[in-house]
Automatic annotation (TrEMBL):
Pfam families: ABC_tran. SUPFAM superfamilies: P-loop containing nucleoside triphosphate hydrolases. This is ABC transporter, ATP-binding component. PANTHER family: ALIPHATIC SULFONATES IMPORT ATP-BINDING PROTEIN SSUB (PTHR42788:SF13), TAURINE IMPORT ATP-BINDING PROTEIN-RELATED (PTHR42788). Residues 15-246 form the ABC transporter domain. One of its GO terms (molecular function) is ATP hydrolysis activity. Keywords: ATP-binding, Nucleotide-binding, Transport. Belongs to the ABC transporter superfamily.
Amino acid sequence: MTDALASSTAALPTVRLNKVGKRFPLENGELEAIRDFTLDIREGESIAILGSSGCGKSTLLRLLIGLDETFDGQILIDGQPVRGIGSERGIVFQEHRLFPWLNVAQNVDLGLVNENLPPEQRRRRVEEFIRLVELDGFQRAYPHQLSGGMAQRVAIARGLVASPRILLLDEPFAALDALTRQQMQEELQAIRARSGITSLLVTHDVEEAIFIADRVVVMAPRPGRIKRIVEIGLPHPRDRAGYDFHRLRQELLSELTGGSSNDRRQPRR
Ligand SMILES: Nc1ncnc2c1ncn2[C@@H]1O[C@H](COP(=O)(O)OP(=O)(O)OP(=O)(O)O)[C@@H](O)[C@H]1O
Ligand SMILES: [Mg+2]
């Protein structure tokens, strides 16, 4: 899948981040959350942003979603400056953000508000994505009747149901148990292979990044910036127990904990 998509890469990147910076005003000054973040994402590419807690991953994603329009530099989607939420971008937030007064099917259906589908097709689509995240039977359950992991799966279905071209995921699997987490990672990979969707996954899980991404962008904290970009040239499905996987895991772990790099900061511990 990756090869076919790579050969059809258009001149224009699907997403362009050019010298993106973000500062938050504080009472006694400001906090520089992101500095000089430059990255082009090709159509169909899978990017993982890997970094420790507080290094600016969610902040960066919020800028891409268009929820925050005060930043330095440029963010272009298909060559156009990002402006507000758009149906070409599907979003799965770090917390599930379901509406407590809507049931599972209604929450998933919200992902289709801008789609203008006939009701029957719309209902079928919602059903299909509820099954995809293995919540068949829970269509009429309300968020307070679900476990944290189930609620997160509803949010994933909602992010995917409109078949967006770009999928932005902020730690989507963090609340899931290890087994479900692996299954969801495999499912995401299958969806990517089927749809050629461009995806950007924020995570602090090294294994998750290697399993899913074509390129892993390692961030350094305070201010959040790119420390290194690692190409994961392994074919899918990726063997988590394989030698190359293991080698990449060691390499990325050492990047994260301050190993070989041009980062001026000392390791945190
Ligand atoms: N609205 C805000 N006002 C002030 N500071 C903020 C705001 N949002 C985030 N920050 C700061 O920006 C930095 C990056 O936060 P962010 O939420 O992007 O981190 P993260 O990499 O997503 O961390 P985690 O892995 O824990 O989710 C942190 O120091 C945080 O305190
Ligand atoms: Mg975050």
